[in-house]
Write a structure and sequence with these properties.
Layout (H helix, E strand, L loop, with lengths): L1 E2 L10 H16 L3 H16 L2 H5 L2 E4 L10 H9 L3 E8 L5 E7 L6 E2 L5 E2 L11 H4 L2 E5 L3 E3 L4 E2 L5 H8 L7 E5 L4 E2 L13 E4 L1
Parallel strand pairs: 2-3, 2-7, 7-10, 8-11, 10-12
Antiparallel strand pairs: 1-12, 3-4, 5-6, 8-9
Length: 201
């Protein structure tokens, strides 16, 4: 399902978000191998056929981990197509923050923050500017989504802060997941940044 409308929701507690996270992650973790493979294939087809992917020169994409919908084939095809591919790394200084570093092969990835595959962090960082943002596609993960483009992530706020710092990318951000992650309506807060589209398959 794909959405690009906006809507309103009610501010509710952090505890409610945590409850939703646990419930949706439990359901996502329990998906059968067949359902997972079908979703992975469908997402790959949707993204590779998306006009934003076709027109993009810069591709920012999370590296799937655990029970997340897979981005491996998408990343591989983006590299084959000659796109400039950047993946996230958590920089654990005083306050952990996330930035995107360029890779030229998935073999460059190392085990990083919480076991997630990450780049070493010694290559080119993505630099957001008006002339690059309009040629960029960003795929972002999440735990739960709704039809108003609200998103609940994993609770650390990495993508919310990154989009707040790079607002031009919000118009080029697509959040992706399995259909079981799409709920009717989610709680949200003032610091939550909405992706421009949500694709759940």
């Amino acid at each position: 399902m794909e959405m690009d409308g906006c809507g309103n929701g009610k501010e509710i507690s952090h505890g409610k978000k945590q409850s939703i996270r646990k419930s949706v992650l439990r359901e996502r973790d329990s998906l059968s191998a067949e359902a997972r493979e079908r979703g992975d294939i469908l997402l790959t087809e949707r993204i590779l056929g998306h006009q934003w992917f076709y027109r993009s020169e810069y591709f920012l994409c999370y590296v799937s981990y655990g029970s997340e919908i897979s981005t491996r084939s998408i990343l591989t095809e983006a590299l084959k197509a000659g796109k400039k591919v950047y993946v996230p790394k958590v920089l654990q200084d005083n306050v952990p923050e996330m930035d995107f570093f360029r890779i030229e092969s998935l073999r460059e990835l190392l085990t990083g923050y919480k076991g997630i595959p990450e780049p070493a962090g010694d290559t080119e960082r993505y630099a957001c500017a008006p002339e690059t943002a309009e040629r960029t596609l960003m795929l972002m993960p999440g735990v739960a989504f709704d039809s108003f483009r609200n998103r609940i992530g994993y609770g650390k706020g990495f993508y919310d802060r990154y989009l707040a710092d790079n607002p031009l990318l919000q118009m080029r951000a697509i959040a992706v997941g399995y259909r079981c992650q799409l709920l009717r309506e989610l709680p949200f807060s003032d610091t939550d940044m909405k992706p421009y589209q949500i694709i759940c398959v």
